[in-house]
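FORM 12-B: Structure-to-Sequence Request
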């Protein structure tokens, strides 16, 4: 059986893959975008009420952006999918839908990409299949007692779809606090197990916090300027939500709703959930980090001459933690009937048969260039080349630089031939 040829195969038709498609097209490099489902497939697997954490104006892709009348609003899930579908049509991306990649392996002159619809041979491969393919559920979840449902955010479809009883949400980054807020507002008792997290106000001095981080250049910080890049690539997502009313979802806001806060889930033993006693310390550290960021924003505003037209600097009340948060919870008593694991996600590279994965199943790379396997590139990962790399707004700049690297490599090989 024969195979198809192209110069570059892009795996994934999300915002990162489409941004790369546009950049390759601008360089007249022939390519194909292989997508196991439809455009924006990863977004179609999220819970229905999800909204983007970033304002509408911040959805900027190469040659395309927001053109509506609500730039400071936050896209709903259907609106996000529609935005990416329109982008794919606008740039004429050569997307092959419902074409799942089953294997990527090296050949003498490039790569062989096997799919459910045949095989492609190419000079280079761009991995843009996303970092949130699989929910990270800790091994201790096996200790849940019978009768307690175990659920991940990829399986969650709304509070009304949950069984009766209370919910223990494990994890207090963006996903965890959003779901705790939504489930508590449905009237259910919610307990939130809090580990490391980054508190962040939705608005500061009259502007969205994302506006500040964009204007001050914080989101454009480069990977080669960061002293501890590994740490930067693994920081929790900000405690933000894109609710229409712009409400906060930090721990104080959740406490005011009636969410019970406990420390990090440390173990499940004999039907009991055991929590760390470090909740107060974690909250204090998060407050400290938030205030350092606000200090940096205030310094930038003063230097940039923006202080006159803006609200004056302010600081938010410290996170309120009970004097003695509970350290254990007997899950056999029936008060908690569902545990929701908001403990992060990981990519799925089970089909990548090139030895470039670390012990955690992530790709070893230098700013998206997989140096151990020339012609292999990564796009859309956290802090790939910039702090904003994982955002829709970050894909364009990364794709431009990586497409330039890819084009130079192709040219070098042509000259060598």
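FORM 12-B RESPONSE
SEQUENCE OUT:
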């Amino acid at each position: 059986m024969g195979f198809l040829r192209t110069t570059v195969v892009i795996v994934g038709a999300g915002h990162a893959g489409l941004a790369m498609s546009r950049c390759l097209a601008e360089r007249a490099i022939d390519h194909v975008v292989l997508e196991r489902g439809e455009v924006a497939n990863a977004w179609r697997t999220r819970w229905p009420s999800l909204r983007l954490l970033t304002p509408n104006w911040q959805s900027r892709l190469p040659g395309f952006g927001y053109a509506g009348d609500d730039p400071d609003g936050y896209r709903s899930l259907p609106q996000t999918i529609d935005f990416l579908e329109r982008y794919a049509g606008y740039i004429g991306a050569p997307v092959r839908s419902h074409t799942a990649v089953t294997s990527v392996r090296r050949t003498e002159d490039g790569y062989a990409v096997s799919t459910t619809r045949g095989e492609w041979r190419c000079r280079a491969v761009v991995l843009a299949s996303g970092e949130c393919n699989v929910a990270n559920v800790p091994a201790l979840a096996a200790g849940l007692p019978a009768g307690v449902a175990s659920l991940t955010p990829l399986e969650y479809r709304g509070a009304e779809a949950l069984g009766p009883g209370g919910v223990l949400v494990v994890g207090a980054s963006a996903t965890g606090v959003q779901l705790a807020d939504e489930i508590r507002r449905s009237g259910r008792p919610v307990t939130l197990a809090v580990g490391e997290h980054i508190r962040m106000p939705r608005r500061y001095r009259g502007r969205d916090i994302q506006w500040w981080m964009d204007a001050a250049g914080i989101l454009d910080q480069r990977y080669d300027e960061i002293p501890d890049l590994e740490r930067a690539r693994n920081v929790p997502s900000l405690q933000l939500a894109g609710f229409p009313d712009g409400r906060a979802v930090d721990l104080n806001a959740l406490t005011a709703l009636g969410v019970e806060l406990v420390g990090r889930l440390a173990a499940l033993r004999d039907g009991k959930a055991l929590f760390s006693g470090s909740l107060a310390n974690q909250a204090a550290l998060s407050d400290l980090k938030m205030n350092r960021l606000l200090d940096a924003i205030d310094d930038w505003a003063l230097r940039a001459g923006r202080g006159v037209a803006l609200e004056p600097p302010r600081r938010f009340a410290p996170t309120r933690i009970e004097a003695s948060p509970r350290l254990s919870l007997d899950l056999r008593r029936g008060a908690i009937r569902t545990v929701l694991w908001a403990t992060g996600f990981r990519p799925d590279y089970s089909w990548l048969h090139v030895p470039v994965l670390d012990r955690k199943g992530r790709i070893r790379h230098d700013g998206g260039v997989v140096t151990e396997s020339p012609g292999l590139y990564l796009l859309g990962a956290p802090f790939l080349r910039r702090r904003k790399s994982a955002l829709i707004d970050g894909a364009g700049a990364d794709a431009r630089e990586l497409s330039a690297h890819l084009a130079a490599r192709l040219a070098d090989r042509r000259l060598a031939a």
